[in-house]
UniProtKB/TrEMBL annotation:
Coiled coil: none annotated. This is META domain-containing protein. It holds the Pfam family META. InterPro entries: DUF306_Meta_HslJ (IPR005184), HslJ-like_sf (IPR038670), Hsp_HslJ-like (IPR053147). Residues 4-103 form the DUF306 domain.
Amino acid sequence: MDEVVGRSWMVTDLSGEAVGDRPPTLHFEQDGQVYGTGGVNRVRGTWTLTEGRLTFGPMVATLMAGPPERMAVERAVLGLLSGPLTVTVAEDELLLSAEDGRTARLVPAPPESELL
């Protein structure tokens, strides 16, 4: 995960479906913190990588409402992050895969999309 840590990543699709005009982002810190946006709300939590499995600790989010399609994407992203994931990193692309077949494809986020 060295190539993932310290960078912001933007979700481009969920299980092959485009995420719309305001993609969720995640930024992985070396100390195990993760933060970003679900597309509407800011999110924060923890992450660990053990024996090739990526798990997220409880994620907290602000409680803003947004357009139904963005809220659906946010729920899907947070739902995916709630279970153990397999991580595949290949040439500036990060693929998160759940045991049930759900996936999230992420690419490096442009600097203006990084959230602190």
